[in-house]
Amino acid sequence: MGIKGKVDKMVVLACEDCKERNYTTTKNKKTLKDRMELNKYCPTCKKHTVHKETK
Questions:
Q1: pTM given for the model
Q2: Taking a C-beta distance cutoff of 8 angstroms, is the pair 52, 16 a contact?
Q3: Phi (first) and psi of residue 23, to 5 degrees
Q4: Using one digit for the tens of pLDDT, what is the confidence trace for 2-42?
Q5: What is the structure's pLDDT at 46?
Q6: How far apart (Å, rounded) are the C-alpha atoms in residues 55 and 31?
Q7: 41-49 mean pLDDT
Q8: Three-state DSSP string of the chain
Q9: What CATH number has the domain spanning 8-53?
Q10: In what order do the strands lie in the sheet with 47-53?
């Protein structure tokens, strides 16, 4: 279940390099059908890396 309503869903973002789960965010399931990919800062790697949505 999402935070804002029925179409929004909480997702967890994990670093591609170290596989550490660092961020949580919401996404609209109607507009974004595929998995999210964001360029975020990873405190474990100490650099900006691609973070992908996990299951």
A1: 0.80
A2: yes
A3: -130, 150
A4: 565 577 889 999 999 999 999 999 998 889 889 999 999 99
A5: 95
A6: 18
A7: 96
A8: CCCCCCCEEEEEEEECCCCCEEEEEEEECCCCCCCCEEEEEECCCCEEEEEEECC
A9: 2.20.28.120
A10: 21-28, 8-15, 47-53, 37-42
The half-sphere exposure of 20 on its side-chain side, counting CA atoms within 13 A, is: 12
22, 51 Cβ separation under 8 angstroms = yes
Encoded amino acid at 28, one letter: N
Which has the closest alpha carbon to 13: 4, 22, 5? 22
Q: What is the pLDDT of residue 4?
A: 56
Neighbour count for residue 29 (Cβ, 10 Å): 13
CA angle 12, 42, 19 (to 5 degrees): 55
